[in-house]
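Intended use. Records like the one below are meant for learning the mapping from a protein sequence to its folded structure. Do not use them to infer anything beyond what is encoded.
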Amino acid sequence: MLQWVRSILFIIQATIAMPIIGLLFAPWAMFSKTGAYAACKSYAGWCMWTARWMIGLRCEIRGTVPDGEVLVAAKHQSFLDIMMIFHALPRAKFIMKREILWTPVIGQYTKRMQMIAVDRGKRGKAIQQMMQDVNAGRIEPGQIVIYPQGTRVAPGAKVSYKVGTAILYDQLGQSCVPVSTNAGYFWPRRGLYRRPGLAVVEFLDPIAPGLSKDAFMKTLEQTIETESDALLAEAGYRANA
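Structure written out for the chain above:
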C-alpha cells in the first residue's frame, strides 16, 4: 500500500513539474534549440532524480553512449526509457507518432527540436520525407532514434520488428547502435504503480553499415531481444509470474 501511495505522489509531482520546467525554459527555448534540449533534459533528469528517492527507482545507463551521427534502434517499453535515452544522448532526434505534436508542452518542444513526426500507417512515406529533410540540411546532425517495433511493448510480449529500421540503416549508411532495456518492468505502459529497483538502458555494440536487409534485421532483433530479456531477468522479472 505504501508503494502505491508513493507512486501516485510521484506521478502527481512529475505531471506538475512538466509545465513548470517548460515555462521556465521557454524564453531560452524560443530562440535556441539548445534551450529546448536543456529544458527536456532537465525534466528527464528531474524525473529520474525524484524517482530515486520517492519510489526507490534508480536509473542506470550502460555501454558506450554514441555522440556522433548514428542510427539508434531501441527497445521501447516505457516512457521512462524515452527519458533515459534522451538524457544520455547529446542530440537525440526521435522518430515519433505525429499525435505527440499536439500534446501540451511536449508537442511544442518536440517541434522546436525538430523531432521526426510520422503518421500511423504511413511509415514508409514518412521515412522518405525524413530522408529528404536530412539531405536538404533541414534536420541538424544528431542521433536518430527509432523504435523498431513501432510502439511500446510490455515485458515478455512479442511484437514483430518493422522494416523501416532497415530502410533507414541502408539509406543513411551509418552504424546502428541497438539499445536494450528493462524499464517497462518498473514503469509499465498502463497503471499508476511504479516498482522500486534498478531500471537499465544499455547501449550495445554497433552494427556496422553494409549488411543486407535480412541480415541486419535478424542481427538487430536477436541482439535487442536477448539483451533485454537478460536485463529483465536481472531485475527479477518472471514471465507469467
